[in-house]
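Repro case for the chain-ordering regression, as requested:
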Amino acid sequence: MEAKSSRLTYIQTLFFVAALVLVGKAMHLQLLDPSFRKEADAVAIENYTKYPSRGMIYDRNGKLLVHNNPMYDLLVTYNQIDPDMDTTLFCRLLRIDRDYFIKALQKDWRSGRFSKSVPFVFLSKISAATFARFQEYLYRFPGFEIQLRNAREYPLPVAAHLLGYIREVNKNEVDGQPELYTPGDYIGANGLEYSYENELRGQKGFSIVLKDNLGRIVGPYRQGHQDSKAESGLDLLTSIDLPLQEYGEQLMRNKRGGIVAIDPKTGGILAFISTPTYDPNELTITNNTRGDSYGKLVQDPHKPLFNRAIMAQYPPGSLFKPILSLIAMQMGVLSPDRTIRCGGAYFSGGQRLTGCHGHPTCTSVSMAIQHSCNAYFVTVFRDVVDKYGFYKPQPGLDTLHAYLQKFGLGQKLGVDFPGEKSGNFPASSFFDKWYKEDKWNSVWIRSLGIGQGEALATNIQLANAAAAIANRGWYITPHFVAGYRNSNRKVDPKYTQKHLTGIDPVYFGPVVDGMAGAVNAGTARRASIPEIQVCGKTGTAENPHGEDHSIFFCFAPKENPRIAMAVYIENAGFGGTYATPIAGLMIEKFLKGEIRSDERKYLEKRMLEANLLHLK
Amino acid sequence: MLSRLGGTRNLDWTTLSVYLGMVILGWLMIYAVTASEVDKVGFLGSTAGKQAIWMGISFFALVVIYSIDWKFWQTFAFLIYGLTLLALFGVLVFGSNIKGATSWYTFGGASIQPSEFAKFGTALAVSAYLGSYKTSLKKYSHQIVSMLLIVLPAGVILLQPDMGSALVFSSFLIALYREGLSPIFFWIGGFIAASLIAGLVFAPTDIALVMLVFALGVIAYRMPQRRWWIGGVLALGAAAFYFRAEEMVHYSLAGLTAVFGLLGLYFWSRKGPRLVAPISLALAVGIGLSFAANYSFNHFLKPHQQDRINVWLNPSKCDPRGSLYNLMQSKMAISSGGFQGKGFLQGKMTKLSYVPEQSTDFIFCTIGEEQGFIGSFAIIVLFLTLVIRLTVIAERQRSAFSRIYAYCLAGIFFLHFFVNIGMTMGLVPIIGIPLPFISKGGSALLSFSIMIGVLLKLDRHRYNL
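-- result from build under test --
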């Protein structure tokens, strides 16, 4: 039994030591360590989220596009509410009714989402004015407290599509990134707010405070050592030219369409317009009638929420002709001084296949572009496709396809903006599938040669193509970001990298001359501006649903271009009628700062007043 | 009444009064936490009311046990064990899922947690098996059987999953130790546990350095002219620690390993493998385990599981709003009681439900807050009295069954009380097990009462053998 009794001693020692450890720890907590008992009255520690201010967005000259507007959330801790509080006064101060008061406090306590001892949002988006009145009485309502949030405010009612808006996060977003978002947080939902959510968001901070049994804050927990500061989001500098954006939106009032203007040297987007548009302040999160506004915008038959600058896809029509010329010359199937006769249409085998309009015989590429001859370009297109033989159209078409991709057509460009569409230009595989057993040929698909048929492009792709021509052979992916204020964060290198089109610079001469001719004495005369040579090309996008869309792309000045743009106006008919003058006015405004001559002012007035919304 | 049941001769009044005292104290604490319910749902509908009903059932069980023949428990030990095991399997199929664990049978308004009764069943089975004169803990086969008796219910409980209750079964090791299980098992177990925990707290490379230096020291101690050898090892260790930053630690480790290899071989060749072999083995196992623990912590554990461990071992790495929140609130509540406490029904933190699970696993917070250090101290002393008394009772038994049974109980109560109180103060990880007699919960109270009742009955008949 000797061994056994020693084991008994060990066991009893273990029990004694364990109890001693517990007593020691209790003594430490209850008698010695003051950090857990900062104040005798403190009964709780609580966490507060400190919301960062969201980054602001500036235009290229440092003018504000979006800034923050303070507003408040009212939080409540259920088990600290005074049952005898003056609810009538409370509701009146906050302008809520009794039903809301009762409903907002009835939470599903069993669900685990809410706790009676943890603050939750009672009422959100309280304006600064309401808050000021309520704050004086806050002390009479234990359990309630105020938290500062930031909403968005727009100094000018422009650039709604471009900027996008913020909204509360949804469940998927919270579940996807629980470390970033908690229910009730805001997130960029569209436009630049969406693209640059990560930069603009900033970082939440936290503070832990001690509270007494009435929910009053006694002091910071552990002198605030565990608190973290909120870090503001980065301020986004964009390439947008605010005056140009505003002017373009005015010109486009009462018209459906889109405009994209690009600085060809940098690829920075100067203006990004989609109309009909709306006042971004309508959808800002503090607007209490936001839901109604949104509903109205959704139901509007003109689809103001549809971003025509980047999401509308339409056949590029005659805008395709300068690009086709460049590719054909590079492929060696077209010489700049080639003459092709036009008898008012394109004929093949004695049949009148593609109509044309009256113009002098085109004796060169530039002349054909100036007069936009259909017969000329159907012929050129067929020469491109038939380069390897009439019965072997595939390699010819695919070569064309490959060059078009180098112009950024038929694929997404990679703009820093959500919702980009890819457009379309079919390759040979498409026709192989479409015609199945039949052997297709260049005649069948000739309408591609004048930008019709299966060809589709977005406004931004056409603006980018204009920039590529302006640069005589290269472009930088169009983008909005120009930098970040007071930050060493760099812009994504893909927005400084040149993309080459693979076209020899010598071929741009005749094409640019042709586009200049179109403005000086061709289809695009109404885009001409005194003293500045604009180069452009009109087009008419056939629209199966109604009147043709009016389209135009251009750049200016001819030498050392500073702006390239594409304009598209729905159901406005021939491109020369509205798209060209609007482009001309915007270029003049951008390059000269104002519209000078009376003649031009008259044109401006007519454009401002034109209402095309009734057209179908 | 007691006289009709056979009188109170040889009844252990100490145990009985500690038991009754704690049950009543526990009920008062539960009432303190949930007093506000009484106004709303009436006394019998409130938590305290339900607990009172369970107290009645438990006292009735005590009376029944007092009147049953004392041999009953040894005779039917394995049957009871089997039934509790069956109930454990059954609950996996028929049980209801509350807070993520399938641990309860629900009948009407009451729920029964079979794992609580499994502790009693296992205590009986272990006592009956070890108490048999045929059993010897010196034999491997008997060691394995007794381990199986314990591991089986614990394993089934892990399937619920209920880590806390399963962990309680490790307390039977105390009884096994008393009955002669070699202490080497405890040394090995302790070494393994220490290596694993160290791997979670420190960089495994540092642990390896320390272990290597220590092993070298042991060999150096056995060398002739040990003074020089130990001095050399210490210098080497200091050098290794000096060069442990960044990439250098790998060279330090390689160097120390090489020195250990050379010295070990030299020592082996002179004195044989008796010292070098086990040291090398321990070194390999210890370093391996600490690396394994560190690696699996970082690569296999999910963030919430990492949090559980971090709350205990690395609180600075935890989010005070998240995983650390419960523990901080719990510590705050205890701490805010100070020396005297805020007084009965005056605990604000616990009353305002700042502390999670405050009537069950975190009931100690209420004691700490309302009764202060005096209350905490008293509860700890009461528990210490109980477990020490149980060992004393155990040693005066003539029957091996009764002795082992008393040790099983001492182990169970000790583990419950140390882990539960320790976790509310952040000494041990947060493991959900109740504070015996005090925490709310009918199954636990009834099961613990039965355990005490059977012990009192066995003890009363200690001279009958």
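Ordering looks correct now. The CA atoms of residues 154 and 281 of chain A lie 6 Å apart.
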